[in-house]
Write a structure and sequence with these properties.
Layout (H helix, E strand, L loop, with lengths): L2 E7 L2 E8 L2 E8 L2 E8 L10 H4 L5 E6 L16 H14 L5 E6 L1 H12 L4 E7 L12 H7 L8 H11 L2 H5 L18 H11 L15 E6 L7 H10 L4 E5 L6 H4 L2 H19 L1
Parallel strand pairs: 4-5, 4-6, 6-7, 7-8, 8-9
Antiparallel strand pairs: 1-2, 2-3, 3-5
Length: 282
């Protein structure tokens, strides 16, 4: 897991690591406190986090291009959720991080759940945003699923804008042209069909329902009230199962609430992380 290349992007530094057989892009912004690990959603790259990262000033942030996404190489087989948990644990080890707060969005939220279950010693607290517990949860409706399954939305920006009212809703659903300015990072690196297929394959048949109640760490569950991809019932369900979990629901917001309307969610994230830091210090 040696560093094999470094390049600079504006004020951020990208580090390319060899983790197992994969060349992985990791972006870290040094700061104070426990590092916050960001785990991307389906088909997205590190740049998609910019609306959130810019509002988390002063914090130690770690972002990773999922295998097959952004500038990370694709795996030679579909990685299971357990293998993905090992991957993110190995990435933390490669960075010399023994413990991190973990924020997983959408597909990344399922990986975050698995990481917390398999390697709880690496997870200080858990933030689950716009995600679900897999089998046993509440799937998206048929129209949303059929629209979201169009692979061209990962390749052609215009297609992404056209389907936004159906699969994202919220602010970007009402104003799809946000992908051309505020959310331009979503198209910084086009997702490959191989990479997306591997992510979908990892999720199929997976469920955290049998062990969610065993998670014993501070947990914040967040969702947009209008989210069609991860219906709000999933967040309510997870928050009711994970012991002492907190729930935040954002009215009028959709699947991309962390990015197209980040002010309220960021304030809640900061309050949650600061409170956990104070309690640990006490």
């Amino acid at each position: 897991m040696a560093v094999i290349k470094r390049v600079r992007y504006a004020t951020m530094e990208d580090t390319f690591l060899r983790i197992g057989d994969l060349k992985i892009r990791i972006r870290r912004r040094p700061g104070t406190g426990t590092p916050l690990l960001l785990i991307n959603g389906l088909g997205s790259c590190l740049e998609s986090w910019e609306p959130l990262i810019t509002r988390l000033s002063g914090r130690d942030i770690i972002g990773i291009d999922h295998p097959g996404m952004g500038l990370s190489s694709a795996p030679n087989h579909i990685l299971s959720m357990n293998e993905l948990a090992v991957f993110y644990k190995d990435a933390l080890e490669a960075l010399g991080v023994s413990r991190a707060d973990v924020l997983g969005f959408s597909f990344g939220g399922t990986v975050a759940q698995q990481l917390a279950k398999d390697f709880p010693e690496y997870v200080n607290s858990l933030i689950l945003a716009g995600t679900a517990p897999g089998v046993g949860g509440f799937p998206a409706d048929l129209i949303t699923l059929l629209t979201a399954s169009n692979p061209l939305r990962y390749q052609i920006p215009l297609i992404r804008e056209m389907v936004a009212p159906v699969i994202y809703r919220g602010r970007v659903g009402r104003h799809p042209r946000l992908f051309e300015d505020e959310l331009a990072g979503w198209d910084a690196h086009r997702a490959t069909l191989l990479g997306v297929t591997c992510q979908v394959g990892a999720f199929l048949g997976w469920s955290s329902m049998p062990w969610l109640a065993s998670l014993r760490l501070p947990t914040l569950v967040m969702c947009g009230e209008e989210d069609p991809m991860a219906p709000v019932a999933n967040s309510k369900l997870m928050a009711s199962i994970v012991p002492d979990a907190e729930l935040r629901i954002y009215r009028g917001q959709g699947h991309l609430f962390l990015f197209d309307a980040p002010e309220r969610p960021v304030a809640d994230i900061i309050e949650f992380l600061d409170r956990e830091r104070e309690e640990v210090a006490a």
